[in-house]
Write a structure and sequence with these properties.
globular, mainly alpha, about 100 residues
């Protein structure tokens, strides 16, 4: 869910008409991920190992602190990459895809 939400945010940030209204909600999405990840040491980060935990925590802080759409987009790409690869691997999550995507 986090990856699809961040992907939607990236699309909105890429559109000059929606950029100004997107910055705040995107930060809220990132803050939610940060809370789930950290949660005073009891979040998902505690299960991923120190290196992955520190990397994603730093990337989230950078993204939340971004002041313009371009830097926020770049930071979100880093967060998405880490979530989709290193976090999935560290948590030993299996990602599956199916043809049942609701297009019928």
């Amino acid at each position: 869910m986090s990856l699809s939400t961040l992907e939607s945010d990236l699309k909105l940030l890429a559109d000059p008409e929606t950029q100004p209204a997107t910055m705040g909600p995107t930060r809220q999405h990132l803050l939610t991920i940060q809370k789930l990840w950290d949660d005073d040491g009891a979040g998902l980060g505690s299960l991923a190992g120190d290196e992955v935990d520190d990397k994603l925590s730093t990337e989230l802080e950078t993204a939340i602190a971004a002041t313009d759409p371009a830097s926020l987009s770049t930071a979100i790409e880093a967060v998405r990459s880490t979530l989709g690869t290193e976090v999935v691997s560290a948590l030993d999550v299996t990602v599956g895809f199916s043809e049942n995507d609701g297009d019928s």
